[in-house]
Amino acid sequence: MRTGGSPARQEALREHNLALVLQHIAAGQPVSRARIAAATSLTKTTVSSLVDDLVSARLVTELGPEARGEVGRPGSALTLNRDGYVGVGLEINVDYIAVCVANLVGEVRYLRTRPRDNRGQSPARVLGRAVRMARTAIASAEAADLTVAGLAVAVPGPVETDRGLLRLAPNLGWQDVPVAEILADRFRDPDLPVLVDNEANLAALGELWFGDHQDLDDFIHVSGEIGVGGGIVIGAELFRGVRGFAGEIGHVVVQPDGPRCRCGARGCLEQVAGQEAILRAAGLTGAVGTSIGQPGGSVAELLARARDGEPETLRAVESAGRALGIGLSATVNIVDPSTVVLGGLYAALEPWLTKPLLEELRERAITLKWSPVQVLASRLGPDAAVRGAAGAVVKQVLSEPAAVFRAVGRHDAPIPPSPG
Description:
Helices cover about 40% and strands about 20% of the residues.
């Protein structure tokens, strides 16, 4: 005799419907139960039961009667709870660590950055600092009666996301670092999910989710700091490739006989149009660091000289823009995006980069005559990756709310079947 088959299907159905209702609430303006039922084709009884669970779990909150309700008694307007669950994002970069806490609508509730040169430091030492910063952020969130749903970590290199394994971070000197495993061991909290991803991927997602671009669903996000990172968004989804390593634009070869890259190849875009190359071409010397890690360093001087129209600096930036155009042209020919979003240092240099970049794209991208590509500066600046990391946790909650119920022990038994 078969047993248990029907309840399992019913449980899966309710989990699906919980996500459906929550995502409908998350999609726009506050909405009533009746409107959700009409939009989803679920019965009003089912929607009411699901909403009650979402409210009880602090995922959704009721605002009171809608200003414009259906015929009869106005329904209660529902929206995401801004004071319930939050995601924690960490970014580990070459010369800084950043941590961010964001709520279900993407509002930043906590943001801290600590400059520190991580080059030449062991993964254990750097990740230890990151854990201490994350614990402080989590404590701050809990003191504000916020519930942490998980932790996502942005790292500067290709990552096997299913294992949380950082394969290579050449600018840190790291290889095959099990970041997720190390962090899980440090936190010793089985209820704290840990996600690890490439910082350029998370920066692209941060721009997609929180960059306040209208209808920007297809773009290439390219950011320049000490390395050059890229993220490809198609149909409002990150394109990862077969193994999750897509978007390594910084290692597209633009000068076959060019300088040796830390990855081992020659003439990578990173070596020709990265921050170090731009500073060197502009005649600026000294320790190379990011605008966050060294806010008063060479990058600040570069930007000041560009604003003043200093010829050598403008030539250096123009040369970088042309190399960017060459490096991006193959990706544009293959992916056919509507937009290139410049992040990191490139966002600050956008007024001088765009013209030479587009000139190279027009020369090399076959479709630009009838399908132009626009170039935009990132709205999030240097916070894109850490905000994208926090947002990745939030999006996971919104797509799988049933996991929240299980994590907080709301149901000792499977989630009950939907009524009706």
